[in-house]
Write a structure and sequence with these properties.
Blueprint: H1 2-35, H2 45-48, H3 53-67, H4 74-101, H5 107-110, H6 114-124, H7 127-159, H8 162-183, H9 199-210, H10 212-231, E1 245-250, H11 256-259, H12 261-280, E2 284-291, H13 300-309, H14 316-322, H15 330-336, E3 340-345, E4 362-365, H16 383-395, E5 402-408, E6 417-418, E7 440-441, H17 453-474, E8 480-485, H18 491-494, E9 501-508, H19 511-519, E10 523-524, H20 540-548
Parallel strand pairs: 1-5, 1-8, 3-4, 3-5
Antiparallel strand pairs: 2-9, 2-10, 6-7, 8-9
Helix pairs in contact: 1-7, 3-7, 3-8, 4-7, 10-14, 12-17, 16-17
Length: 553
Amino acid sequence: MRTENSNSFSIGIIKKLKPAMGFLLSVVFLNLVMNINYPAVAFDTHNLLKISPEVLILLSLISTAALLGVRFSRLYYLPLTAFVIFLRLFLIGEALIPMYFFRPFNLFLDSQFLPDLIHLLYTTFTFKEFLVFAVFAVALLIGITTGVWISFKTIHSYLTEIQNRRIVAGLAIAALMSIYVLQSGHDHHHKTLFARSFFHRVIEEGDFILHVKGYRERFNKAIDATVKNIERMPSTMDKLERANVFLFFVESYGHTMYADTHHFGKILPTLTRLEKDLFKGGYGVCSTFLNSPAFGGGSSWLAHATLGSGVNLNNQLRYNLLITSAAKTIARFFNGIGYRTISVMPGTQWPWPEGEFFGFQKKYYAWNFDYKGPVYGWSTMPDQYVLDFIFDREIKAQNTLLFIEFILISSHAPFHRQPPYVEDWSKIDNGKIYHDLEVITFPIIWPDLRNASEGYATSINYELRVIVEFINKFIDDDTLIFVLGDHQPNVQITGEKASWSVPMHVISRNRKHLQPFLKRGYAPGLIPNQPLPHQGMETFLPNFLEDFSTPPM
């Protein structure tokens, strides 16, 4: 009898412990889902063990549902599950955007870049790696969603018993009340038992969406005021004396190449050699820094459009408003004085109707280059090939003045696969030669760019060499040339205290073309030395129009 009673007692204990263990495991799972820090530079085990305020609120909601006698149903728990998944994805954005773009996450503006992120993964991984990544990501999402659903079901079942509900509700309320008491005494949330709450950030995003109309109206007024000021300026550009103008944007060419001693040590020999080569070719050079509206990639077009419009476009909403406005861009100014305007964008791989706003008469996108060689990471083709192609198609046989904007891409992250320099440009042809040349590789696994400094510096050296060699080999007149970065590279390369500035070089055989820039404080040579803070890119267009146009009498 004692044995039977003992067995019955043990079975009873197990029956009571089993739902409690299921409840506990479900809560721990939800807590891990909320707390896991991805993407992250380092794995923080301590953070995983903190109590998530979101999970406490979820427990309160489920407890309330059980108290009201609500049965476990899809009507109630599908939206709750969807919200948890949304919040988890939101937290990824909260970590990802500052890490790679050095700015706060904005759900309304940044969600539209998801296709670009997928395309970046597709182009920087091999197809096999991308397929494995995609399958893993989908499987993980399905697994987490299923786990959240099962956890809710387990918790709801456990809380249907009034005694369990009272205990859990009491603990949840006590924990929620403790958050303020414990965290108010600390300067940093990681010193407490509780994880950081992100509900306030979700509320902020909702507030932005609700008031986006007001933001649009305010930005439109600022854009209109700037546009009117620029349009009132003289724009004959007669002081160019009928010279061609070439503008080279170099991807990720940032202030860090000069501010960081390691990076500067890598670029200094190249700058010294290229400066001598330019002087031998009869060129004068001066340089400065400009503050870019973009940082780390993913929004290079903000820099291109800011420079070309004279409007500071420091977020995507401003950009979207600009390209639907009546703003007159730099290409349209050149159109007005008889130049043939050309946009060279080898990184644009699908139709881009928005590009019509900028007013270029001819546009070269990736499919227009007849390239037969290999791709290099995100870059569709080497920039040396791009310059050789455009010289052959446009510059060699020009019959009118040219304004050409080059958006160069060989220095695009993740810097792991780079093209070699081809000494004999005549052998480049359609690019097939690159199949026979050794790829320059670095052990960089995107998205971790902490060890990418060497690859990054190498890519910038390549870009500058290609541009200067192109100038010396193929430009034999007074063409006015601008070479500048679009933004700093990833913050993992620059460090979190980096500025948003980029270098700009002005090159021409006609020394009169350099004088306006020297008067504005540009430093002679290829090495800019202006201290922070630097003028914004939006100052370039109005300054250029003022310096190269004779005011009306």
